[in-house]
Every structure is written in C-alpha cells, then in structure tokens.
Amino acid sequence: MIGGLLRAGLVAVLLVLVLAPGWVAPLLAPLAPEGGPVIYDRASLLSLSLSHLGLVAVASLAATVVAVTLAVLVTRPFGASFRPLARSVTNLGQTFPPVAVLALAVPMMGFGAGPTLLALFLYGLLPVFENAMTGLGNLPPATLEAARGIGMGRWQRLRLVELPLALPVILAGVRLSVVIALGTATIGSTVAARTLGEVIIAGLLTSNTAFVVQGGLVVGLFAVLLHDGLVQLERRLSPPRPGAGRR
Amino acid sequence: MTLAANRIVAGEGVAAWAVAPVAQSLPALGCMIAGLVMGLPAALPKLRLGGALLGLGGATGLLAVGAPSLLAEAGTYARVSPAAGFWGLLSVFLLLMADALAQLAPGPILRAGLLAGALGLLAALLSSGALSDLSVAQEFAGRADAFWRATLRHLELALGSLGAAALIGFPLGILCHRQAALRGSLLPMLSFLQTIPSLAMFGIMIPLLSWIAATWPAAQTIGIAGIGFAPAFIALVLYSLLPVVGNTVAGLDSVPAPVREAARGMGMTGWQRLLRVELPLGLPVLLAGLRIVLVQNIGLAVIAGLIGGGGYGSFVFQGLNQTATDLILLGALPTVLLAMVAAIVMDILVDVARRDSTERTAA
Fold this sequence. Notes:
The complex is a heterodimer of chains A (247) and B (363).
Chain A: H1 4-19, H2 25-28, H3 45-75, H4 83-94, H5 98-109, H6 113-137, H7 141-149, H8 154-188, H9 197-205, H10 209-237
Helix pairs in contact in A: 1-10, 3-6, 3-8, 4-6, 5-6, 6-8, 7-8, 8-10, 9-10
Chain B: H1 2-5, H2 22-39, H3 45-73, H4 84-104, H5 108-128, H6 135-142, H7 144-178, H8 180-195, H9 198-215, H10 217-221, H11 229-253, H12 257-265, H13 270-300, H14 313-322, H15 325-362
Helix pairs in contact in B: 2-3, 3-4, 5-15, 6-15, 7-8, 7-11, 7-13, 8-11, 9-11, 11-13, 12-13, 13-15, 14-15
C-alpha cells in the first residue's frame, strides 16, 4: 500500500516528533502565538504516546478476546438460536457514535481512564465480532467435512481448521477496531484520560496552532502506520484461496 | 431481579418500587415484568414485540409517575433523572423490539409507517409534559433555543457533507469504475484519509484553512475560517469520500455482464448505458454507501463541537467541562436517536431500491 521508502520516512518523522520535538521547533514556530511556547511541554510526548497506545492496546486486546469468544459460541450449533439477536445487537450498536459512548460512560464511571477504556472496549467489540462471525460462518463446507472425516474432534476442528482459516477476516476486524480505538482515545482526553488528544485540545483552548499540528501529526502518523502494519500482517497470514468470504 | 436495578434519583438511588405510592407504580412495574416475560420465548416474534412495547410503556410510565412524586418530597433545587437500571432496561426492551422486528421482516412501507409512528409517539410524549420533571428535560427547557439551533447545525453538517460527498464521490466513482489505473491510486489514498483520527483531522484542518483565509480574502467572505463550520464540514466530506467512491465502484461492478452486453447490443451509447442501466441497477449498493456515510457523519459531527462547529457536540463538551451529566445526555441522546433514525430510513431506501433493481434485472 505504501512503499517501503515512504514508510521508513513516516516512521522517521514520527520518531523525531515524539522523541526529539525540539528539532522541529523552527518549523512550527510561525504557527505558535507571539511569544507562546512552540513545543508542548506540560508532559513529554513520549509518555503521552505510551499511555495512548497502552489504552488502545488493552482495550483492543480485551475486545478481541471477548468478541472472538462470542463469535465462536454463536457459530456453534448450540448457539445458533442467539445468532439473530447477536446480529441485532451489532446492527444497533454500530449506529452508536463513539463519542456518545464515551460521553455516556462518564456519568457511570466518572472522569479519567476508566470511561475511555470502557468506550474503547465496547466500540472495539463490534467490528471484531462482526468479522469473526462472517469469517467463521463462511468457511468452505468441504474443508469442514474433510476435517471431520479425518477424525478431528470439535475442539481440534476449531483450533486447527476454523480459526486459522477465518484468521484474515478476523484480523481485518481487529484492524478496524484498532484504528477506531486510536481515534476515540484521542477524544478521551476531554474526559481527563492521558492521551495525545491532550496536546490537540490544549492547542485548541489556547489557540496555539503549533500544539494542534504536533498532536494531530503524531496521532495521524500512529494511525496510518498501525493500519499499514496490520494490513501487511493480514497479507502475510492469509493463504491464497479464492472465493473465501473476505471483507 | 430486574426491580432492584431500577433506581430513579440522581445522587441517591431509589428502588423502582419506592419512587411513588404503590397504587401508582404497581401497574407500571407489572407492565415491565410482563414485558420481560413475554420477551423470553424467541420463537414467537409477535409476542416478543408486544412484550417489548409493554415494557417500554411501563418504564416510561414509571418515570412519568415517579419523577413528580419524588420531587414533591425533595427541595426546590432537587433533580430527578433515570439511573443505570432504567437505561439497562430501556436497552433490553429496545433490543427485544429490534430483534422481533428483524424476525417479522415487515415490508418497507410498513417499516416507514412504524418509524413515523414511533417518532410521533416520542414527540407526543415529550411535548405532553409527562416527563418534564426529569432533569434532562429541565436542562432542555433552560436552552430550548440553543438546542434547536444545535439540531439545525448538526443536520446541516451531517446532511450537507453527505450531499457534497455525493456530488464529488459519484463522478469519481464512475471514473474509477471505467479506469482501473485511477482506481488503483485513488482508493488507497481515500482509505488512508479514513484512518486519520477525527480530532487530528479537525486539528490539521484548522491551520490549513486559516492560512487559506489569510491568503485569499475572497475565501474569507464565503465563510472559510480556521475555526467553526468550515473545517468541520471539509473534514466530514473527506471522511465520506471512501464509502461513497468505494460503493459506487462496487455498485457499478455488480451489474451482470450479460445485461451490460445486451445494453451495448441495443446500440446504447456509453452515457445511455450509465444512466439507464448501470446506475439504476447499482443503486442499492450506492445507497448503502450513503447510509454508512450518514450514520458515520452524524456521530463525527459531535466532535465539531470541540472546534466551535456547533451541533450537539457543543452540549456534550460543555457538559463534560461542567461535569453536568444531564447536559451531556442532552447532547448525546439526540445524536444517538438521529443516527438510529438515519440508519432505519436509509435501510428502507436500500430495500426499496433493491426490490426495484431485482425486478428490472428479471424483466
């Protein structure tokens, strides 16, 4: 998708922005207000980045585990009767804007990382669950028959056949959920979670465009690079088989 | 079991059965329990639908009865708002209803009627004043003007960006469909735009637009400025392009090759084929793209509140700043409602278009 050279360039820009923001100060100086600070200094960008990525990682991991487990249960014969209900839940849930989830979590959990984590987790469930359901539901019946034919048990079939075959589709869902989580975590700083959104919001409040551009660039680059990395991973893991239910 | 969860006073919880004199709250509680019981058997969607409606009625009834009776005992500044138990029950009943409706699969006209009926009922309920003792409603009464302005602005942002995205996206999609080279370079670029987090996108838009406004005074006169409506609008349009262009290409690709051949055989020119064969047949997929965009933009427009773009987001973020839960709700609830209504309306349109296009293909 992005050429190797471009990717390396973006990584370099990101590293400079996060690790040595002083280097870009001359470039951003015209954007800052007269005499105002050019580089965000209330917290180091590195620690904000780590806390941001940590939130996303924890929420996405938890969402992936829960969503895949639910999808496995729903695609088993005994869970089939829950399938329409599960579909209704995903359809209804997807119309919920991420910001609304965040805003509604605050009254329940107070300010801080808690509501952000909850919103990221809840919103991350849907894409993974939907894709896992599609992936596990659209496996070639001949392959499943064959697995049964060579005497594999249910658990073996799931672990050795179904999950590996559905993996690319599930990963596409994980990618979607990670990208959404990254964006929602940015807004999480309005409820006092420590994320990179803090830089952007500080810039907006003090009309210091230099802050806004710094925060925006760092978050944007993280999103693009993570997205790209996950796409590469999907390509590497997906076996070349035509006609499978890819999304 | 469900009763203990339902509490109604802000700050201090009050159990469902204690909010009003027993004689008044008993029918409402009964309705909710009966509704839950009726919702249990999955095989009878009609029963489930009835149960959901009964339960919803019971829950709102309890609110209407409970709020004034609680307020009567408390001081003048007391506020009453539904607590987690109410919201939980509300979502359970809504889910039951959605599930039952999905199983019954009513036709598009019936669905439109049901939606109109539900909205009418909601409007009647809100304007009747039965719920006006709740604190969200009091928050609304304090800023009714601002609320309607925000509604208008929110719709302008969401629908306007949809229109602009359609104007740009449809021609781009048609071009991409015809020229594979363009498709190969444009679609990845658009999906790249889509991955940029919304707050960052809004943030990057601000210096860009204020630079434009500073460089060309003409741009300033048509309202382009670093903060406010313009950056929010442009960011929303950029986000909308991928679903619109992608689905236009997919929709045009979905036209069966024999149909296309037949149209060519009848001596239709490229334009005629596009307007009379390919677009009508690809319409369901095109509309599905617009549905994604609309629902997504209604949600994203909330973030416009952070950069002075107005809309419901201004209530949400004001509420977050003042830690005023009811103000947050005043912004978040209409957003959710708007998104759901938009999703249902677009689903109906997609359905109608799909029937139409299958008839055409069959004919």
